[in-house]
Prior knowledge:
This protein has 305 residues and is of the alpha/beta class. It has two domains: 9-180, Rossmann fold, CATH 3.40.50.300; 198-301, 2-Layer Sandwich (GMP Synthetase, Chain A, domain 3), CATH 3.30.300.20. The chain is built from ten helices and nine strands. The protein has a six-stranded mixed beta sheet, sandwiched between helices. Strands 7-8-9 form a three-stranded mixed beta sheet. Strand 7 and strand 8 form a beta hairpin. The chain is globular and about 55 Å long. The two termini are 37 Å apart. The relative contact order is 0.14. The model has no long low-confidence stretch (mean pLDDT 95). Bound molecules: guanosine-5'-triphosphate (GTP) and magnesium ion. Magnesium ion (MG) binds at residues 23-24, 36, 44-45, 64.
Amino acid sequence: MTEITSDFRSGIVALIGPPNAGKSTLLNQIIGEKVAIVSPKPQTTRNQITGILTREDVQIVFLDTPGIHQRKGKLNSFLLKSAWDGLASADVIVFLLDGHLYLQKPQLMERELVPLAERLKKVRNPLFIAVNKVDRVKDKKLLLPLSARLNELMPDVEIFFISARNGDGVQELLAKIIPVLPYGPPLYPEDQISTLPLRFMAAEIIREKLFLSLHKELPYNLAVQVEHWEETETLVKIMATIYVSRSSHKPIVIGHRGQLLKKVGQEARVEIEEIVGKKVYLELWVKIKPKWTENTSFLFSLGLG
Length: 305
Ligand SMILES: Nc1nc2c(ncn2[C@@H]2O[C@H](COP(=O)(O)OP(=O)(O)OP(=O)(O)O)[C@@H](O)[C@H]2O)c(=O)[nH]1
Ligand SMILES: [Mg+2]
């Protein structure tokens, strides 16, 4: 057990930024384990995801949030609320953005950054900017105009250049965050890495495998819920439902002769076994739930809103 001294610090750090910036990847990199699902598609994260880092001198609860975007609809507005709510409770905010993408698409940078910077300027919490994916930028000098623009938009905010994927610059960022956190005892046991229930983690892993296997609008129109969880000493039996919004989506999710669903189930099972530390029997069902993305009570049941 870590000995708690009076100079122990503990606090909450929110990771916020546009979709696909690498927030969940950064969380996993910092925690050293996969607590958040990741995919190349934007809007992978839907709920606030926590990851807890405990060291000799500090405990940080990181809040990974859904990417900030400008899309319409109830699901999207719930996602935005969840992202901005993350800020209210945070001691420190890390604003993460995809540096490589903005080098390719300067107009997108203006479109995404300007409204976000305006909003972030109004929050009082200490703020850091992390320009991510610098592993994809061979000539680092190319990043200078981006940092100049960020300086213009958010003067006095320190900028870090990081790679959430390989960890470059991440310890330097942490070293700046820690002294800003308040003194206080740890809130969670030192071996706990998230506050999320295993049932939720399992549903997320299934959703990640679906995100990776499906394309176009389909991933955005599905939700996963664990309906049944039965545990013995050596085995966990899980039954989960994949909800799709249209009848035409159901056969796509199931795949030819059930191949896609089978693959998703196998991939998810292996990872769920890792987190529960037991053998897993996983059963997946696909159900049609028209317009679920606009259904408030269903969104609540997914932990949104
Ligand atoms: N090359 C490179 N790719 C990265 C890095 N960080 C994240 N990625 C990739 O970028 C994609 C998006 O990463 P996520 O971590 O899911 O991004 P996010 O900000 O959580 O996205 P949302 O949850 O959709 O808002 C994934 O394909 C990651 O593998 C990085 O430092 N370098
Ligand atoms: Mg994410």
